[in-house]
Design brief:
six-stranded mixed sheet; seven-stranded mixed sheet; FAD/NAD(P)-binding domain; 387 residues
Amino acid sequence: MRILVIGAGIGGLAAARALRTDGHDVTVYERASALRTSGSALTLWSNGTGILADLGISTDGLGAPIDLLEQRDHAGGVLMRIDVSLAAIRYGHPHLAMPRRDLIRRLASVLPASDIVFDKTCTGVTQDARHARVEFADGGTEAADLVIGADGARSVVRRHVWGTDPTVPTGWITWQGLGPIDLDVVSSRRGLMIVGPEGMCGLLPAGDGLLQWWFDLRRDPAAPLPDSPIAELRERFGHWAEPVPRVLAAVSDADVEYFAHHRHKVPRSWSLGRATLLGDAAHTMPPTVAQGGNQALEDAWALTRALRRTATLPEALADYRSSRTRRASLTARRAGSETTNKYLPTLSRLTPDALVSRYHTRWLRQISTYLSDGPSRPSGPTAAVRA
């Protein structure tokens, strides 16, 4: 089939890799002039790293392994320790925190350069019985058997499929950054989640001596941004126990990125005719459960599998929907609740570490099509779906 992917993010590039391996004719169109390498860092859990392995994409030298998540209160007391290595052992794939730019470059490197076309902004999608046609801001159009909207939280393809943009702000925002800050966390296999009445601070090693840091706080996304985000963060969080003051002392406004949290109810259908959705376009969610990139990889894997194992495009898109909507909806509801940002010290202290560690292992399987169903790639390329 001829397939157009709109958006060269994690999900779009992974889908292009998987679909091309199966013999489809794929082109990715990206509105930016080059690969988008902003976004600080992200965490891939066993579902994400397992899918990369299934796609033949090595994670060697990518990021830093994470075996333990430690939750502390703002005074420095330990509230909870989650042994996430249990899930890595159970499913046979590691947990890695890494710069987003490194993952994007790794995904792009396994595609022919001609498969990604930059400076192409999608402005609309139309369809007839035989083709879907993408319209671009430069006046050009392209027709295909299938259009995949991997164009993020303000997706043009989503407006075609659903007729609206359903996202709403959660009332939380993130200030985040990535840099070589001298903390023991950087050389460890441990992440810190520090919570207090003012919000949450997260710290993770990201490989190559880099620290991923972020602050989540309640804020009206429509309110004007401060002239100095770091000054505001120091005022709000500077009295917290170490290592928070040390992080705030080591960074400047030039190091920080802003991210507003949005959510929506995930509809049961992600497709209309010959157009379908993937990643944030299908399920915009806050980053609070660190599943955004993982769920985009899940979508890419599940859509490719559906096209591989069904006879017609409508059957494939129905298979894709049935395998992903419930799990993505479960993930989006959990992330949208912003529970991990809330200061609930009594509940955290009363929850046994062993119990929450086992729960995390089970939860990964509940939200993962890949971990639930397992890889199913045949030995050779197949593109037998009738368009």
